């Protein structure tokens, strides 16, 4: 399943149901952890599909950047993935929503887009950051993710023309598709 929403400045948002490691883009965002140490979920899938070079690059920068605060991100090459870069973002752990989680989650999306712009990327894909092991309720995360991306694409974007939300499962896909259908821009 897939849906494309054009914005009136020529940029677009795509929503795709599937495995993020299989969708070609310039920059693929990853839901990493503060130590950039690899894990399960989408992080595990990205490292498995990308191969050891991703972790080698993270190992080399860990001492100077980790632990990364929630909302932060770092970029590496993409190894065997169909991308030029992987941008490893650290989402907030859900603690009820009153501890800055929405701001930190929005910051993940913004930071990834900023790093993608620095690398002159045209397309960037995102998983639903924080909505797995980190426990952020999916229905609360979706409007934050879409809002941050819409805002960036309508104001700051230069090289980035397309953002792809890759959702794992039909339910998440429908949530994003419905929100994008109703978003005003
Ligand atoms: P976090 O620790 O940030 O919560 P997770 O990896 O546990 O990260 O989950 C984030 C989201 O990624 C979840 O919604 C999960 O369903 C989804 N996900 C897991 N594997 C993939 C994949 N291969 N492609 C896209 N999304 C994935």
Structure commentary:
With about 180 residues, this protein is an alpha/beta fold. The chain has a single domain (about 1-180), classed as Leucine Aminopeptidase, subunit E, domain 1 (3-Layer(aba) Sandwich). It has 5 helices and 7 strands. It has a 7-stranded mixed sheet, with helices on both faces. A hairpin with a 7-residue loop joins strand 4 (about 75) and strand 5. It starts with a strand and ends with a helix. The mean pLDDT is about 95. The structure holds adenosine-5'-diphosphate. Adenosine-5'-diphosphate binds near residues 41, 43, 91, 166 and 168.
Estimate the strand proportion: 15-25%
Strand order of the largest sheet: 1-2-7-6-3-5-4
Distance between the termini: 23 Å
Listing every helix as H and every strand as E from the N terminus to the C terminus, the arrangement reads: EEEHHEEHEHEH
Bound molecules: adenosine-5'-diphosphate
- Approximately how much helix is present in the residues? 25-40%
Average predicted local confidence, pLDDT: 96
How many beta strands in the DSSP annotation? 7
Low-confidence runs: none
Taken together, the total number of domains comes to 1
Number of helices: 5
CATH architecture: 3-Layer(aba) Sandwich
State the major sheet: 7 strands, mixed
- For this structure, the CATH topology is Leucine Aminopeptidase, subunit E, domain 1
Which superfamily, in CATH terms, is the homologous superfamily?
Leucine Aminopeptidase, subunit E, domain 1
